[in-house]
Design goal:
The chain is of the alpha+beta class. It has a single domain, classed as Trna Endonuclease, Chain: A, domain 1, CATH 3.40.1350. 36% of the residues lie in helices and 28% in strands. It has six helices and ten strands. It has a six-stranded mixed beta sheet with strand order 1-4-5-7-8-10, with helices on both faces. It has a two-stranded antiparallel sheet with strand order 2-3. Helix 3 crosses helix 4. It is globular, with a radius of gyration of 18 Å. About 9% of the residues have low confidence.
Length: 195
């Protein structure tokens, strides 16, 4: 696939590398299905906008896309609404046991999450440390604070444990991140009461 300026976006090696978070995404998708079916929240995975340029029409069943371009760089993986609050987040997975590399989040994605936060939405990353089998929710404000005040190219797991929330894993929903959003909303309400 190519971006509109005709630059190639990924080579085959990078495409495989990019799919390493699929297990986390599957868990989130199953959780979102549970939340939707039980009328708890409406959260969907956003499709990446592409423009199809060349297609082989051998027959209806065997039609193949030969060339396509990303129309615009995608922002984040998920968005939706819960208790009247807009939520927007991205899912990231790492094999590191000690830190989350900031190379895993693109500049335009972080800028998008910051804009959502600044407009009153709830934005965050869900980060899975696959070797530790631990998944965390880290709010955008802590990612922004870290990037503004550190030269490091990765967020240490100790920072994530201090400022993030561990997400419990279950059978259904797989990841109970909505319980954490309840805490964030409650904290926001209490903050307003103090002011």
């Amino acid at each position: 696939m190519n971006y509109p300026n005709k630059k190639s976006s990924y080579n085959q090696k990078l495409v495989n590398y990019g799919n390493r978070g699929m297990t986390l995404e599957e868990d989130i998708n199953i959780s979102n299905k549970y939340y939707l079916e039980n009328d708890i929240a409406i959260v969907h995975k956003k499709p990446t906008p592409i423009k199809v340029v060349k297609v082989d029409y051998n027959n209806r069943i065997n039609t193949k896309i030969r060339e396509a371009y990303y129309e615009i760089p995608s922002t984040t993986d998920y968005n939706g609404i819960y208790k009247g609050k807009y939520i927007d987040f991205d899912a990231k997975e790492t094999k590191s046991k000690t830190s989350f590399s900031l190379n895993n989040i693109h500049k335009h994605q972080l800028e998008h999450l910051i804009k959502v936060k600044n407009h009153g939405g709830i934005s965050f990353l869900i980060i899975k440390f696959s070797m530790l089998n631990e998944t965390y929710l880290l709010e955008t404000k802590y990612i922004e604070d870290f990037t503004n005040n550190n030269e490091r190219k990765s967020i240490p797991i100790d920072y994530i444990k201090k400022y993030g929330y561990i997400i419990n894993s279950n059978y259904y929903p797989r990841l109970e991140y909505i319980k954490i959003i309840d805490k964030l909303i409650e904290g926001e309400i209490n903050e307003k009461k103090v002011k």
